[in-house]
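Q: Got a minute? One more chain.
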Amino acid sequence: MGPLRPTEPGPPATASRSRRSAPARILTFNNDFAEVPSVVATLDGNAWSLLDNAHAGGATTERVTVRTGNSNGVVADRPFHFIAMG
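A: Always. Here it is, folded:
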């Protein structure tokens, strides 16, 4: 996982992840945001259909859930990147 941009000056924040249910990932920010951040997720790589997807939702100042799916609309593991800014 890449660095996150914290809301206060200092070194980049990072996030840890845990699996809630396949393929949902709960990303916990190591440094809480002062306000709920805007989070964007995108699939990693170029071998995916345009219908494969990554969705970031339920963001709080402490965490966000990212879910991924395949081109048939079925939840499926997919590698992804995300950015959280606030």
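A: Confidence is low (pLDDT under 50) at residues 1-13.
Q: Perfect, thanks.
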